[in-house]
Every structure is written in structure tokens, then in C-alpha cells.
Amino acid sequence: MDLALFDLDETLICEDTASLWLLWLVSQGYADDAIVRQDEALMQRYYQGTLQMEEYMDTLLAPIAGKATLTVDGWVRRFIQRDILPRVYPAALARLQFHQQRGDTLLVISANGDHLVSPIARQLGAHGALAIGMEVVNDCYTGKTQGTFTYQQGKVARLREWQAQHPELRFNHIWAYSDSHNDLPMLALADFPHAINPDAALEQQALSRGWPVWRWTK
Q1: pTM for the full predicted model
Q2: Would you say 28 and 197 are in contact if contact means Cβ atoms under 8 Å apart?
Q3: 193: domain range?
Q4: Which of 161, 182, 169 is nearest to 11 (CA)?
């Protein structure tokens, strides 16, 4: 049995989950449209590799601070059906099925909040998800994060934590799929790394290291 690691945004789906989520919240009247402009500015820094994730998560979580987890769960279910599933790459579904048929363990690892990533991973048939943890007090989101951020080297750290929590699982090989240079640590860890629609920095690294570069279209 192997382990297959999938980034989410612009790897499994053709856009950014958090940005879509904020647009959905605005469309439903749950957030002010000013948050979309904040997100656009922060995403520019993400693509440049200069984003401070703490700052980004403060923006992302502000609309759900103080909201009951059950309420947000309901919002997320509607959001996934409307805005995520229609954006999944057909080739991504085929690759997920490839690993499922092999009997591999599939994990989605994303630098997004767990309130979004885990239910998306379940919808896609993954066995689990590693994402940024949300603090919950009295069944309500506080708007704060907890644990190691699944961003850059943090994805590897969280994966090691997950492996330590599951000593019963033994993997022959690790496969990894991502579009972003921010995931170079995760890709370098894998026996079979794949660059999916890579940004310029990742494409350069993939070509120099002999990694497959795949172009997935919607």
C-alpha cells in the first residue's frame, strides 16, 4: 500500500478554495464585500511566497468567529455543492480513482482551514485531510487557529505527526501532487512527486529534478 498526498487548490480544483469561500459568504450576506479585496491582496503575496499565514487566516476566519460549528457545517455543505464540486479537474478525479483502485491511502493536505478541507476531502473520497486547525470553544469557532500550519515545511511536519499517530499504517511509497512552489518540501519528500499545472518556480524545479509535469484542464 502506498500513500498519495494531494494539494487542494489549483491541484484538485481549478481555483482557490478560501477565495471561493469568501465570495460565497458575501453572496449569502454573511460577510462584507470588503473582505474579497483583502483576500485578493493577500493572495498576491501567497503567489510571491511572502504571505504570513497568521495574517491570512485572521482574514479567512473573521466571518465565522463566534458562529456555531453546526451552523458553519451547514454553510460549508452548500458551498461545496455549489462552488467546489463543479471545479474539480476531471483528471484529478481520475487520479484519485487510480489510487483508490490500487488500495492506497489518500490524504488531502492544504493550507486552508480544516472546516473547509476535511468535508471537501470526504466528498472526493479521500481517507483524510491535513489542514489548519480551528479553535472551538463551547461548540463555536473562536476565529483563532491551533496547531502547526499546513504551509510550506509545515505540511511535512503535520504529515510526520499524522504518521506517528497511525503506527499501524506502513507505506511502501509516497506519491505527491501539487501546483505550487510552496509545496516543494512535500514534493521532495515523495518517492513519486508530480507537478500539476505548476507555477513558474515549481516548473523550473520539476524540470531540473526530472519530476513529471502534468497539465490538467477543466
Answers
A1: 0.92
A2: no
A3: 3-214
A4: 182
Return the residue matching grid coordinates 511572502.
Answer: 50
> N- to C-terminal Cα distance for the chain?
30
Q: Which residues are catalytic?
A: 7, 9
pLDDT tens, position by position, 65-106: 999 999 999 999 999 999 999 999 999 999 999 999 999 999
Answer yes or no: are the C-beta atoms of 109 and 130 closer than 8 Å. Answer: yes
Count of domains in the chain?
1
Euclidean distance between CA atoms 118 and 209, whole angstroms: 31
How far apart CA 194 and CA 41 sit, in angstroms, is 29
Give the CATH number for residue 33: 3.40.50.1000
Contact, 35 vs 62, CB < 8 A?
A: yes
CB neighbour list of residue 168: distance below 8 Å, 6 or more residues apart: none
Q: What is the DSSP string of 146-210?
A: ES---STHHHHHHHHHHHHH-TT---S-EEEEES-GGGHHHHHH-SEEEEES--HHHHHHHHHHT
pLDDT tens digits, one per residue of 157-166: 999 999 999 9
Return d(Cα 91, Cα 47) in angstroms, integer.
24
Backbone angles phi, psi at 107, to 5 degrees: -125, 135
Please state the separation of Cα 63 from the chain's center in Å. 19
